[in-house]
Design goal:
111 residues; mainly beta; four-stranded antiparallel beta sheet; two-stranded antiparallel ribbon; 6 strands; 8% helix
Length: 111
């Protein structure tokens, strides 16, 4: 049975991802796969753990980064800037009769 967008959001929210550090986000266009890694925890855990979320069959993925509010030297690569989650929203959409999820993430300095 397919989870609703709200159910998926709740599963992610249970990992306390808000203000968690994004450790990596990768898009494999050949496999249509987005892999996202971040530090989070469940309420019963004392320490943060690295979580990996796979978004399979991604037919479109857009990542934009910017330096708004950054101070000091311009980073030479995205690895030099820490990104932190603020929100993930998932809604169900139908395209050409196919049921899909649309995922939007708010990560300051990344869209």
């Amino acid at each position: 049975m397919r989870l609703s967008g709200q159910d998926v959001e709740e599963k992610l929210m249970a990992t306390n991802y808000i203000d968690a550090e994004l450790k990596g986000i990768y898009y494999d266009h050949v496999k249509h796969l987005v892999t996202m890694k971040y530090m989070g925890s469940r309420d019963e855990e004392k320490e943060d753990s690295e979580y990996t979320v796979l978004f399979k069959e991604c037919f479109s993925a857009n990542f934009n980064t910017w330096l708004e509010g950054a101070e000091g030297n311009i980073p030479q690569s995205p690895n030099e800037v820490a990104f932190y989650f603020h929100n993930i929203s998932i809604r169900e959409i139908v395209v050409e009769g196919v049921s899909l999820y649309q995922v939007k993430m708010v990560i300051p300095m990344m869209d």
